[in-house]
Each structure stands twice: as structure tokens, then as C-alpha cells.
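Aim 2, interim progress. The first record below pairs a target sequence with its C-alpha cells.
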Amino acid sequence: MANLLVEIGNTAVKAAWSDGSVLGKTFRYQGEKVMDFISSLTDKQMPLVMAVISARVISEEEQKTLSEASQYLILLDPAHPDALSPYGIPDYLSYDRAASLVAARYLFKGKSCTVFDLGTTLTVDYMDSQGWYLGGNISLGCRTRFKAINRYSKALPLVDMPSESKFPGDSLQSSIESGVISGIIFEIDGYIRSNPENIVIFTGGDAIYFAKKMKNSIFVVCNLGLMGLAIITDDYVKKNIQ
């Protein structure tokens, strides 16, 4: 029987079916009816295990709904951090970020890694060749930077991500586009040069966009967090069910 993985983020919900550590079909939802979205998946097929990552605490009512929709339930939220304890990852990391590190450790065993998550925020995490977490940084993501420029500078417009950006910019709009896009590229390049021997992994909504603009060799794994959650779920099944 398949497992259902759910990642409740700041702006969207991602879900995927998994068989062991292998991801199957993935789904994406943006809206407020998160439980209805999950129910639309479980109504068609009850998972053996449902594993849910959430930045916010899952309420008791929501937990009851999720429990009734699956045979076993794993929660990773601020009130239920225990599922991560076997993986030696600091508890101050967000759970989606931690799950990405579990996946990176699994995919690139024996290799030191730099993991970039390019979404609402830009996070950078380092692991050594033994899989130990060495630390990381957080800054604003691409669209968040565009919004900040518009919000805190009265004369500057809100600009969206361009398909291509000029360097340097030759208009007000292209100057904003170039400033944000080039700034992130320079930032990423600096992180990569600080640990040139590391495997470089991009994930998150903007991973493909920026990977195409980099000169370095990049591994793009768009659903790295869900893959990590699949590994955590598979470990749970092997330990507690089989």
C-alpha cells in the first residue's frame, strides 16, 4: 500500500504518493481549504502512512481528520518534532528544510553538499561527507526581494521575475530585474566558491530558473523535501510496521 506525503508551506501545499523511498505522482494546491485538498487525495485511496510537514501546528481537529484518513499518521510540526530525532539535524531548522537534508544525505552519501532552497526565502545549508550538518544561512527569496523593493521604496514599481534579465539594466524595470536576479546569482556563486569541493543541489520553486543561469555543475531536485519525507516515512514503516 502506498504512502501519502504532504508538505504544508507558507504559500502552497505539495503532496505526493510514495512507494518506499520512491516518489510517485505529485500534486500542488494554493488556497485555504488544505484539509479538503488532502481529503480529495485520500478519498480515492487510503494511504498506509500519511506523513505531514507543516510550518504551523496542526490542530486537534485537523489531526483527527488526518488520522481517520490513513492507517498510520506521522506529523512534523512545532508540536510534533520527534520524527526527526533519529537523523541528527538541529531542531531550529524548519521541517521542510530538515527533510531536504535527509534526502541530500541519502542521494549523495559520502559526499559533502551545499543545498540551496530557492523559494520564498533563499536558504543555504552545508553538510560534510559524513552527513553531519555544518550550518546554514537564510536570506530573502527572489519574489520576496521584488516585493520588498516595491513596498519600501515609494517610487519603485513591483516587478515580476523576467524570462531574461539584462546586465546591467538599461531602464527602471530592467535595473530592478537585473539587481535582484544578478544579486542572487552573485550570492549563490559566492557560497559555491566558499566550498568548491561540495556537491551543489538546488531545490524549491525557483531552482530550475537559477540553475540555467549558473556556470557551475548543479543537481536540481525540485521535490527534495518530499523525497526526504518519503525516506523518513519508509524508515518508520520498516521500524514499526513490517
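The second target in this work package is listed in the same format:
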Amino acid sequence: MSEVFSHEPMSLRRMPPAVKALIVANVAVFALSYLAGNGFYDTFGLVPRDVLGRWWLWQPATYLFIHGGFMHLLFNMFALWMFGTPVEAQWGARDFLKYYFLCGLGAAAASVAMSPHSGIPVIGASGSIYGLLVAFAMLYPDAVIYLYFFIPVRAAHVAILFGFIEFFAGTSGATPGIARFAHLGGMVTGYLYLRWWWVVKIRAAASLRGMGARRSPSFPSPSRWRRPARSRPKPEEGEQPQMAEIDRILDKILANGLDSLTEEEKEIMRKYSDKRLQ
């Protein structure tokens, strides 16, 4: 049976242990970075040129705890609390932390692969946070997330929509100050881990020890991940016509995959992604 979770006013005492430890560590490192100066970012941020050329192999882990400003830290910690609380409640602290850092490493690998000669530090926990969004969407695909705080959208749709936005923003170079491919790397790493590796691990454990020998963290089957919703939240009036079409396209992706989209539908998604970036 899964543990029960609820979102109550943010309190360190009520937070699950892994989420609490990550938030405390991020806040502590943020304070330390202000005392240490700019050299701190070059040493402990993710600098692809230094990772490959100087073998500074601690950077793919340490960059996750460094943020460039208070709002950067605030939004990442809010998302960590929002998505991390239910995911850790399902999996437990150990598996949650393993997944969190795996997504962070996947985001780092994507950044290094896309810009191997860059000397600009990549910082922030966003790669892991985007991985948590994928995990939340797979665990609770019909949960309602209020996009931009007022548009109700299913969690599964939010994950796909953000994937589109990060892809189009990364390929177009619309926001050069944001590591879009790091975000994508975290999402793809999380999805592949949950969609393939975890299934293999559970089946192997079942064949060796028998079903029920050990409680495995739960996540929905592929059929549930693809199943269209029976009901949808109603968008706000001003966004209703556009969001209804976006919602239909996202349901089509869930049911039949990205290749099922027509060129017109792909263009609609591209324009919507561009609009969200403005």
C-alpha cells in the first residue's frame, strides 16, 4: 500500500526527510555562494570545458545545489516540495534520492554533450526538478496542476507540454541564458528510467525472489500512462478555445505517440510553446 501524502502549508517539520534535506542543503549552499564570491560558481558549477578537459568530475553533482539568485532558488525549491513530496511518499527516501541525482546527472550529461567546449557554468537543480515532474506525471497522470497558477491542466499533459517548450526553446536559442537541454536531459533520463529500467528491475526481482518478497515502489503501467482522461478540468474562459485544442493534441500524443501528429498539429504546439516563452 502506498503512503498517504497531503500538501499542507510548507513546514520543515512536516516535510518528508529527503525533500527536507535537499531544501536545507540548497539554501545552505546558496548562502555559502554569496560569501565565497564568483569563483564558487566556476569551481562547483557545471563547466563542460572543465569536466572534459580538467576532469573536474565533482561538478555534475555539485552544480545541482548552486543557484544564481533568490528567485531561481525559490522556484526550484517550491517545485521540489510540490512534486517531491508525493513522489517520496510513494517511493521512500532512498529510491527518491537515487532518482533525483540520476536525473541531475542526465541533465549534466546533456549539457556537456551539447556544449562540450563551453566555459559558462550551468547551475541549478532544474534538471532534477524536471525529472520529478515526469515521475509525478507518471504516478498521478490525472492530477490537476494549475499552470501559471490559474490554468488547470492534467499532470501528464503538463509534462509533455513542458517537454515541447524546452525542446523548441533549446533548438531556437530563444533563451540563451537558460540551459534548456539540461532540463530536457533530466526529463528524458527520468522517463527512460521509469519506463524501462524500473520495469526490468521489478521483473528480475520477481523471477528471483517471487512476487511479494519485497514491496517495490509503485508507478502506473504503460497502459495507464497512455490512457486518455475520462474528464478534463475546464480552462479559464480567456484561454478556453486554445487550451481545448492543446488538450486534444496532448491526449493524442498520450494515446498514439508523437509520430501520430499532423504537420498542422505540430505547428500548433510549436506556436503555443513560443507564446509561453514570451
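The two ends are 44 Å apart (CA to CA). This observation will shape the mutagenesis plan for the next reporting period.
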